[in-house]
Amino acid sequence: MKYLVLLTPVAGKTPDQFAAHMVAEIKHVWESYTAGELREFYFSPDPQAVTLIYEMADRAAVEREVTSLPLIKAGLLDAQIVQLGSFPQLSVLFDKALIAP
């Protein structure tokens, strides 16, 4: 299953607080990527956010991975986890009852 994880800075935290953990954070992200669990990652400067796309067995596995991130453990980032799924609404394109004759 795929999961979107949105990481945002906790209000009031300073760049110096983040800097102390960045090498460990990037190493952790790289290990997850090379293990095949983390599929994609993006950074947005405005608003500041990191987007991670995981492919893992279940939400509990993603939660364990996210809570092990150094910046999460240090209380510098908040995380939102969203399970991604198929888009069944596309089936309307093939529903003969909805297609005009």
Topology, pairings included?
Elements: E1 2-9, H1 15-19, H2 22-34, E2 38-45, E3 48-55, H3 59-67, H4 70-73, E4 77-84
Antiparallel strand pairs: 1-3, 1-4, 2-3
Number of domains: 1
Between the first and last Cα atoms, what is the distance in angstroms? 38 Å
CATH topology type = Alpha-Beta Plaits
Percent of residues in helices comes to: 25-40%
Strand-pairing-aware structural class: alpha+beta
Strand content: 25-35%
Low-confidence stretches: none
- Gyration radius, to the nearest Å? 18 Å
- Mean pLDDT across the residues is 93
Spatially, the strands of the biggest sheet line up as: 2-3-1-4
- The number of helical runs is 4
Tell me the number of strands: 4
Shape: elongated
How would you sum up this structure, described in words?
With 101 residues, the protein is of the alpha+beta class. The protein has one domain: Dimeric alpha+beta barrel (Alpha-Beta Plaits, 2-Layer Sandwich), CATH 3.30.70. Helices cover 31% and strands 32% of the residues. It contains 4 helices and 4 strands. The chain has helices at residues 15-19, 22-34, 59-67, 70-73; strands spanning 2-9, 38-45, 48-55, 77-84. A 4-stranded antiparallel sheet has the order 2-3-1-4. The longest helix is centred in the N-terminal third of the chain and has 13 residues, at 22-34. The mean pLDDT is 93.
Features:
101 residues; alpha+beta; Alpha-Beta Plaits; 4-stranded antiparallel sheet; 4 helices; 4 strands; 31% helix; 32% strand; Superoxide dismutase
